Backbone:
């Protein structure tokens, strides 16, 4: 006969105690669920229209073109650069409504190099109007107060004196936007209205160090089209810049490295943060422009992951050998 | 009374263990995701209005002026106030430099000069957690053309062509003008700094940072404090550094204070391991107990623990140079801090 351990038995009393405890637990959970149950459900939200596509402002015939101009005078460099690409008429047609996206992020005077220089903005406006543009609008959604930023940077004055108009980032100018396939730009407020009213888009920004992303140039400049609490994207800064690069396809970009902010960006503060790098890039490939800008800062693409990410996403090329590049000295 | 059945088959135990492991993995994944909130969720939180900003649990009204100014200086416009939540609304990506170091509040406002028409400078007054935090952000942004200011009621202040920067107690102050300043105009920045130090009486601590390092060959103005992630090592925090110029080459000494000798030894070990991970090769230091030398990219580093301090030399040209400096540093710590 096998020597087996006796099977443990349970008395009726034990069974009843356990069953009562279990029933009490289930009842408590059920009561809590009943108490917290929301019978009415969430209030109906007004339907929110989400935009999923922005116009592509690039001109196929002008693809992969860039002029790198060495010179101390940014206005002269701009003229030389555009002339090397065939002149402003290659990009602006009669009757075009042109939108210029500047970097007016901070209420900072132009001498500190934290924003697009007003002389450059004025000249771009003038050249567009001279080429027959019907209107030239300048916009940004600054980090600081918009009116203070546009005034203190000198950009507002420059635009007005050149015959353009300022488009302020009014709340009604934003609409929710989703970039197809994006991780971050999903149902996010974007400054859509001035973009939809434009036929051509020009992006212009200075070359700057940036504490978070490593550099702030053309690609980072599109950040100023975002609304909401966009600083949340700082946690994944290189991905958001990549998505912005895919989202925005400009006609032309002007990267101003006449004076570059080498350290303590993006705000700087001391004139000694700036270096006279005497270089201005005019081109149709924002990724290529930023690649040139990186060199002015003494950085490589490895130091600025957003450039490679944007390239891999098809927003442009960091391989300057693949582009038609003119390098010249401004006279 | 019922008893647990000890005869649970092995395969049931294995399945239970597997289920437990899967639950742990899921929990770990969820824990990690906590640090990467969906921006859309963050964006729709309820933020307080500009009129009142919360600091800790106290709602503070925004003052009309940051501190009183002497004639003929005047504040222009309104005071702007930013806390940890809103700091990036003023300085964007640079906010993290301050947040990592221990930031509490920023007040900023413009002042006007009575000369040269309407020169207007902007004052940024950062309130940090403590003296060390203020010194961290002060030293991290010290400009190369910094000219040290003396007789300003504060131990740490310098000027550049257009600006003045100072650390005073737990405060970090920047006064930034839009152009190069004349001597007379700069005098107004000094007056502003003095008005600030008069308005904020702080306990002036004996400057521990300079006491940590030997004076000979030390580059003036090179003292700094790295709040976190020093030298690229995550979590390597509260590290003081000083620059030295020897034989026309510049190198760095560092000292960090820890809670105990054991903690200092542990952190020294962690830094050595970090250097080895990036290709550092240990080098024997015959006759120098306690010195751990690593050669990396053709330069020499020494790390050692000394009492509650971990300290070392970075980027020395030769083993002899590294050892010489490390010995000077260790002797200095013994003499000044009795360790």
Residues:
């Amino acid at each position: 006969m096998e020597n087996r351990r006796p099977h443990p038995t349970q008395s009726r009393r034990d069974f009843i105690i356990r069953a009562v405890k279990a029933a009490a637990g289930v009842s408590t959970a059920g009561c809590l669920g009943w108490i917290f149950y929301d019978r009415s459900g969430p209030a109906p939200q007004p339907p929110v229209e989400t935009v999923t596509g922005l116009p592509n402002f690039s001109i196929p015939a002008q693809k992969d073109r860039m002029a790198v101009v060495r010179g101390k005078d940014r206005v002269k460099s701009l003229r030389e650069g555009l002339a090397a690409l065939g002149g402003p008429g290659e990009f602006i047609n009669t009757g075009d409504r042109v939108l210029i996206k500047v970097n007016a992020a901070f209420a900072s005077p132009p001498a500190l190099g934290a924003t697009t220089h007003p002389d450059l903005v004025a000249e771009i406006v003038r050249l567009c109007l001279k080429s027959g543009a019907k209107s030239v609008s300048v916009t940004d959604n600054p980090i600081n107060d918009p009116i203070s930023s546009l005034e203190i940077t000198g950009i507002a004055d420059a635009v007005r004196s050149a015959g353009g108009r300022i488009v302020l980032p009014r709340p009604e100018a934003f609409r929710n936007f989703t970039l197809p396939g994006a991780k971050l730009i999903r149902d996010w407020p974007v400054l859509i209205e001035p973009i939809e009213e434009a036929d051509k888009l020009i992006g212009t920004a200075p070359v700057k160090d940036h504490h978070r992303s490593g550099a702030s140039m053309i690609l980072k400049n599109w950040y100023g089209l975002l609304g909401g609490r966009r600083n949340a994207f700082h946690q994944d800064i290189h991905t958001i810049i990549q998505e912005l690069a895919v989202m925005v396809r400009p006609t032309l970009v002007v990267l101003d490295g006449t004076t570059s902010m080498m350290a303590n960006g993006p705000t700087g503060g001391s004139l000694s943060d700036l270096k006279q790098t005497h270089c201005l890039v005019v081109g149709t490939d924002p990724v290529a422009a930023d690649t040139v800008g990186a060199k002015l800062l003494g950085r490589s693409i490895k130091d600025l992951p957003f450039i490679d990410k944007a390239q891999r996403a098809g927003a442009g090329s960091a391989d300057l050998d693949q582009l038609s590049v003119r390098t010249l000295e401004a006279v | 009374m019922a008893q647990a059945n000890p005869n649970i088959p092995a395969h049931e135990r294995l399945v239970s263990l597997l289920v437990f492991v899967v639950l742990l993995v899921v929990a770990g994944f969820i824990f990690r995701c906590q640090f990467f909130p969906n921006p859309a969720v963050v964006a729709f939180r309820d933020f307080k209005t500009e009129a009142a900003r919360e600091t800790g649990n106290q709602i503070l009204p925004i003052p009309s002026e940051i501190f009183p100014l002497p004639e003929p200086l005047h504040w222009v416009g309104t005071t702007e106030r930013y806390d940890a939540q809103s700091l990036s609304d003023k300085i964007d990506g640079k906010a993290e430099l301050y947040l990592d170091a221990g930031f509490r509040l920023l007040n900023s406002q413009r002042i006007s000069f009575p000369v040269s028409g309407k020169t207007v400078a902007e004052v940024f007054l950062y309130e940090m957690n403590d003296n060390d935090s203020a010194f961290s952000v002060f030293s991290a942004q010290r400009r190369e053309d910094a000219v040290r200011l003396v007789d300003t009621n504060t131990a740490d202040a310098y000027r550049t062509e257009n600006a003045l920067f100072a650390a005073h107690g737990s405060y970090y102050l920047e006064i930034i003008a839009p152009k190069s300043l004349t001597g007379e105009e700069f005098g107004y920045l000094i007056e502003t700094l003095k008005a600030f130090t008069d308005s904020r009486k702080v306990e002036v601590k004996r400057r521990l940072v300079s006491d940590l390092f030997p004076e000979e060959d030390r580059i003036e103005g090179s003292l700094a404090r790295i709040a976190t992630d020093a030298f690229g090592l995550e979590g390597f925090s509260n590290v003081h550094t000083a620059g030295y110029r020897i034989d026309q080459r510049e190198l760095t000494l560092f000292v960090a204070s820890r809670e105990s000798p054991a903690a200092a030894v542990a952190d020294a070990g962690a830094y050595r391991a970090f250097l080895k991970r990036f290709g550092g090769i240990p080098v024997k230091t015959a006759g120098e107990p306690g010195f751990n030398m690593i050669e990396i990219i053709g330069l020499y580093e020494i790390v050692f623990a000394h009492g509650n301090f971990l300290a070392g030399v970075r980027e020395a040209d030769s083993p002899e140079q590294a050892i010489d400096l490390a010995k000077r540093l260790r002797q200095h710590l013994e003499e000044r801090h009795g360790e």
